[in-house]
Amino acid sequence: MKEIEKNLDGTGMRVGIVQSRFNTVVCEGLLAACRAQLTQQGVLDDDITLVTVPGALEIPLVLQHMAQTHKFDALIALGAVIRGDTYHFEVVSNESARGVGEVQLHAGVPIANAILTTDTDEQAEVRISVKGAEAALVAIEMANLLKAVL
Question: Taking the model in full, what pTM does it have?
Answer without folding.
Answer: 0.96
